[in-house]
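Usage

Read records sequentially. Each one opens with the input sequence:
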Amino acid sequence: MDLDYKQKAYQHAMGFESSYDYYDEQYKVKDNPSVWRYMDMFKFQSLLESKALFFVKPNAFLDPFEGSYSMWNIKEMKDSDKLNSRSLRTYMKKIHDFSAVSCWHINEYESAGMWDLYANSYDGIAIKTSYDNLLHSIKDLRYKVFARKVQYIDFSKGMASENIYDTLFFKRKSFSYENELRLLILANRIDAWKLQKIFLNEGIYADEWQPRMEILKEKSYQFSHENGNLIRCDLSQLIGEIYVSPKSSLAFVDQVKTLVKQHGLSHKKIIQSDLSKDYIY
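and closes with the structure output:
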C-alpha cells in the first residue's frame, strides 16, 4: 500500500463505517444461514497450517468491474462536476489497497457450479459453516470485520455506492449465481467495543485501553502478503463440516482425513460429496 494515501484511506474508511449499520435491508444477512468456501487442496492445507483466513486485496481480483463505479454513478459525477475521469480509477485502486476481502457462498446445500469454478475437479475441498460461526471464529484484534451480502446490478444502468469501500459490495448480474457473502477488513478500523470487553476480562486498566488500541491500528497497516492479508481465526469454530469433491478418489479422501487429524480437527465431519453418484439401478 502507498502510505502517501494513508490519510485519504482513513477518511474513506470512516465514512464507510459510519454508514455501515444503516445499509438497506437487502444487504443484511438474516437467520444465520449456512455459508461455504470452496478451495483446492493447497489452500485448504494453508488454512490449517496458518490457522488464518486469507483476505485478498480488491486489486487482485480478475473482474475489472469489482470495486468500480457504475456508468450511472459516472454520469451523476459528470453532471455534478465531481469527476476527474483521468485519475479516478487510479485513485480508487490506491484506496482499495488499504482493504482486503474474504468471499463466501450462501446456500443451504452444496453447489455443483461452485465445485467447478473454485475447486479443482479432483482435489477440491469445501468448508461448510454458519454465518455466526464464521464471524465469531475471527480472532485477529487488528480489525473490525464488516460483513454484507453482495448486490448484483447492471453496471450500465444500475447505481452502485459512491463510497469507495462500499463499491466492493457490488458485482455484475452475471455473477449472481455466486450468492456471495463478503467480509471486509480496513486498515485502521478496529472493533473498539469488542476490545473493551477483552481488556475488562483481562483486568487491563482503562487508561491503557486507548494506547493499546492505537498500537493495533498501526499494526493493521502491516499486511502479510502483497496481494492480501492472513487473518487469525479459530479453526474449530470456523469449520463445521468438510466436504470433498464428488470426483475425488478414496485415496484423496483418506489424505484429507489424515491432514485434518494432524491439525487436531479429527472430530470434524468429513463428507465426500455425492453429486456425481449414479442412482440409476
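Summary fields computed downstream for this record:
- The radius of gyration is 20 Å.
- Residues 3-30+50-106+126-236 form one domain.
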